[in-house]
Amino acid sequence: MPTVDTFLTFLFALFLLEISPGPDMMLTIARGIGQGRRIAFLTVVGNVFVAGIIQVSFLVLGLVSVVHAWPMALDLLRWFGAGYLIWLGIKMLLTAGSDTKIKKTVKITGREAVKQGAINSLTNPKSLLFMFAFLPQFVNPEAGPIWSQLLILGTIQKLAGILSLGSVAMASGVFGEWLGKHPGFIKWQERFTGVVMIGLGIKMLFSGSSISGAGK
Length: 216
Prior knowledge:
Elements: H1 4-18, H2 23-35, H3 37-69, H4 72-94, H5 110-122, H6 125-134, H7 146-170, H8 172-181, H9 183-214
């Protein structure tokens, strides 16, 4: 596993991302407002468990296969990931609060809620792309097998959705109304997260060579 400091940085960045309104959160709020907590929770189940298993498996199997075939891939992915985090942070600063509208949804069954929650996450390319850009930044080849580190970090990232989206599902009605009345909160929260992403990307960009060199 990564060092304590690196792991705490990972948890801090993950916390900021989880509380940032996005497609998954907006869908959960819409389900809660339109059909109550049960459907909202089932939407979260689809997003976290169904989509999560597929995404983490694809991340671990795909990335580990590439790294085994080409060891330099992990270093290149770190640099790409650092650049992506910087770009994502800049984009969050420029578009803060512009993509967080709560859309009306039609009535659905519990099974459909699970399916649509999974589809909502799986069809969002940003979700998997972010996993590929974000998680490798915290992998240290000296700390153990790369696949186990990715599996642990990926699982933590997806399970964090239980706390964030689960809390939103529980209070979706109140939270949805509050967000509608306080759009400024979304903007400043996204701006703050954007600054953190840029800082994290710059840090990883300049520290990537030393990390990768330690594992050789």
